[in-house]
Every structure is written in C-alpha cells, then in structure tokens.
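Work Package 4 report. The design task specified in the project plan requires that, given a folded chain encoded as structure tokens, an amino acid be chosen for each position. We show below one input record used in the internal validation round.
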C-alpha cells in the first residue's frame, strides 16, 4: 500500500491559535483525507513547539513553572482537532521525552559529520521570531514582523552549524526536484537566497541565560537553539532513531509551512537532514499570510481572528470552506468579517445549501427509489489535479461550477412542473441532478466532511436538514 506522510509546522505556544494556523492545519487535513480516499496509508502529524526564550520569559512573568505553562498552552492547540474536525494521527510536543532524545541523537549525527563547532559571536536577535537578524532584514532598525519589539544583542560563545558547507547540495536539490518547494516563486526565492551565499548559524544558547531548552549532548552548559530542536520533530514523530523500520517505511515527508518559515524549512532543515545522513523532505508547500483589511494579524494591532470565533459564526464546515477557498495558493489572503459573511451566504447558504434542498425535495416525487451513481464529469479530473497541487481554491471552484450549473439546470428545466406533466422527462432530469449531487458529496468529503456525510445521508433517506443557514 502506498504511504503518505504529511506534517504541519509546529505552532509556537506563546499565543492562542489564529486563523492563519487554522488554514494551514485544515489544508493538511484535506491532503490527509484526500490521500486516504485514494487508498493510501496516511500519517498526519502536527503538534506544538515548546522551547525558547519567549516562552521562558512569559512563564517567569506569570510566576509559574515553564513546563506547566507550555502544557497549559498546548491544550489550546489540541482542542483544534474537535473544533475544526481534524483527522491528525499524531500530536507531538517538543517537550516529549522521545523527541528530546531524538533531538540529542540528531545533534550527535551532525557533530559526527563535522558540522558543529563553537565560536564567540555577537548578533542582533528578535525574540518574537526566535531568529538572528542581519541589518538588511531590518526596517528602520526593527524586525518587520515584530516592529514594536526591541531587538536584543546576544554576545556569547555558542555552537554553530556549518550551513555554508551545504550551498551546492541545496542548489542541486532544487535543480533536481523543481517541485520540491511550491509555489514556484518561493522556490525561486529560496534558490536566490542560497545562491547568494550561506552563513553558518548558531544552534545553542548558554543555559545560564536561557535554561528552557534541550541540553546539548556533551555540553551541559548549553541548550539547543529552539529552531534546531523543533525541526527534528518531523523525524522523531515517525520513530527516528529508535524505530527505523517505521521511519524507513514512511519517510520522506510532505511539509506545510508559512512564507515566514521558507528559509528554515527549505534550506536550514534540509542541510541538517543531509548532515545527519537522512534524505531531504519530499515536498514543501509554502503558504502566504492571512491579513485582516490589509494588515497582518497581530495582537498589538488587535485584529486577530480566531478559528473559535469563525466556527461560532459559520460552523465547522463553513469555516473550513472560507479558509480553503479564500485565495490563491501561496499568496496572502485578506479577510474581513463582512467579506467572509458575504461569501458564506453566496456560496454555501444560497449556493450549495439551496441546491441540495431543492434536489432532495424534488426526488421525493420520483417513482422508484434507486441509489444514484456519481456522474462522470471532466471537472472532477481538474479537481483532483488542483487538490494534489494544493490549489484548494481552484479545486473548490470546480465543485461550485457544478453547483451553479445545476442550479441553472433546475431553473431551465422546471422539474417541479415536469413531475406533474412528464414523468419520463422528470426522471431523466432528476437522474442527472442526483448523479451530480452524489459526485459533489464525493468531491467534498476531504474538504467539508460533515457536509459530505449529510448529503450522502440525504440521498439515501430522501430527507434533508438545512445545511447552511443564511447569516446576517
């Protein structure tokens, strides 16, 4: 049986889940469900990133134990499984003991490859990103992602990873696998970054300054840099290095990440894998940001939209649809409550919901009770192609083209009149509509699973509860 391993990035637990995280994990869920439909054995991984300076300081500020703090915060992300109807197989936490041991073994492998050394250095550091910043990355001396936070100067002796050693191997990887990073503009971006020259990066912190991290093997006065530790979850989640039969049976992985993670996921992590003697990831999909009225979501701006709020207003499948259909893959998606409501009403309440209600009610006038077979439709081929490429907006547009065509078909053929005047013609019209509705349910199973189930049930029972109520 073909195997398919997909993972999200691990969200940092310093804040509540927001719509951007919800979009990424729903996208991963769609790919997991879609590949299960294709008969593949799927492993869907997600979890939480729980080390680093930002979390340590927050726990100190709250005067609670840092482990208790991250455990409490991790629960907010675990709850997303039920809130968003997700089907993940594994939820890993970077404080899990098996992950800690795997991260330490990964360090040893990189060290054995001659890729870890120590040196004194001085750097500007953004605690918000948990990343070093060069002057070229700053705008008026501030991190563009955290403009309200002061950069800190770190000056100490750290362990470094020989990133510079892997420049050519990374360029060869991108050349050999042109779909390794998608969309293509992100592959071009990371190729240009790597071609411009790579600098070795720090992978440890002094424990006396930042004690919240995984201890460096053979160097008890240092803890691992949070990015080094967190990225290892992609291999530790599937048994590496203790269960190599499991690991070898499912690796490599398909990764989802946001565009602010491009460098870490598609260059830093890949060089670390090469150093540890592990084949690079299979594919990396890079998402744009969700913005609200043109501004990136931010607690300081006060424009954060949470998935919990969205589900309260639009329901689970309404939220999934709005986040999956709202923009082109890899590009930023700008949302407002007004535009979300408008799209919900147009596409779901007046579009799909109305179509399902009309067809099921009309089907009760049919003589006989055959179970319809799904229709052959060229749009279904396009749908599968778009889904595999993570062009979810385009995939859903294929489905909604069928919805719009069928709503027009009903208006043109007036089956409610045919039911009284021409049963043969009525049966032909209804055969097409029922076949299309069966196909719609099949196509939506990975995207809107509860809705797909309700449609299938309605087709069997010839009764329907309202799928989507119009929202004011």
């Amino acid at each position: 049986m073909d195997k398919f391993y997909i993972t999200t990035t691990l969200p940092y637990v310093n804040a509540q889940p927001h719509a951007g995280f919800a979009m990424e994990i729903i996208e991963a869920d769609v790919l997991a469900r879609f590949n299960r439909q294709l008969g593949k054995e799927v492993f869907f991984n997600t979890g939480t990133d729980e080390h680093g300076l930002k979390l340590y300081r927050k726990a100190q500020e709250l005067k609670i134990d840092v482990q208790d703090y991250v455990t409490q915060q991790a629960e907010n992300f675990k709850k997303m499984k039920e809130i968003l109807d997700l089907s993940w197989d594994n939820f890993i936490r970077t404080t899990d003991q098996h992950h800690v041991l795997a991260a330490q073994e990964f360090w040893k492998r990189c060290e054995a490859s001659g890729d870890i050394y120590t040196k004194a250095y001085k750097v500007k550091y953004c605690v918000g990103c948990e990343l070093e910043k060069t002057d070229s990355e700053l705008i008026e001396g501030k991190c563009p992602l955290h403009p309200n936070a002061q950069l800190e100067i770190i000056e100490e002796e750290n362990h470094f990873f020989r990133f510079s050693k892997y420049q050519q191997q990374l360029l060869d990887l991108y050349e050999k696998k042109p779909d390794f990073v998608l969309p293509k503009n992100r592959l071009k971006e990371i190729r240009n970054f790597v071609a411009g020259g790579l600098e070795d990066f720090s992978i440890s912190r002094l424990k006396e300054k930042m004690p919240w991290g995984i201890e460096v093997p053979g160097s008890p006065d240092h803890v691992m840099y949070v990015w080094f530790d967190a990225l290892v979850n992609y291999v530790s989640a599937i048994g590496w290095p203790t269960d190599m039969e499991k690991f070898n049976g499912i690796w490599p992985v398909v990764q989802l990440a946001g565009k602010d993670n491009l460098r870490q996921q598609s260059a830093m992590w890949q060089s670390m894998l090469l150093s540890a003697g592990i084949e690079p990831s299979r594919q990396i999909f890079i998402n744009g940001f969700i913005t609200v009225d043109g501004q990136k979501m931010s607690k300081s701006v006060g424009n954060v939209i949470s998935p919990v709020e969205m589900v309260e207003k639009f329901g689970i499948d309404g939220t999934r649809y709005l986040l999956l259909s709202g923009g082109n893959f890899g590009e930023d998606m700008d949302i407002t409550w007004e535009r979300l409501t408008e799209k919900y009403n147009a596409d779901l309440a007046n579009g799909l919901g109305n179509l399902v209600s009309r067809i099921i009610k009309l089907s009760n006038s049919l003589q006989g009770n055959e179970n319809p077979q799904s229709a052959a439709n060229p749009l279904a081929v396009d749908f599968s192609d778009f889904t595999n490429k993570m062009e979810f907006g385009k995939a859903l547009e294929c489905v909604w083209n069928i919805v719009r065509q069928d709503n027009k078909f009903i208006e043109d053929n007036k089956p409610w009149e045919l039911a009284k005047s021409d049963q043969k013609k009525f049966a032909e019209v209804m055969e097409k509509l029922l076949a299309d509705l069966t196909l719609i349910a099949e196509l939506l199973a990975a995207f809107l699973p509860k809705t797909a189930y309700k449609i299938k049930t309605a087709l069997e029972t010839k009764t329907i509860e309202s799928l989507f109520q119009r929202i004011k």
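Residues 336-461 form a domain with the Isoleucyl-tRNA Synthetase; Domain 1 fold (CATH 1.10.730.10). Validation will be extended to a larger panel in the next phase.
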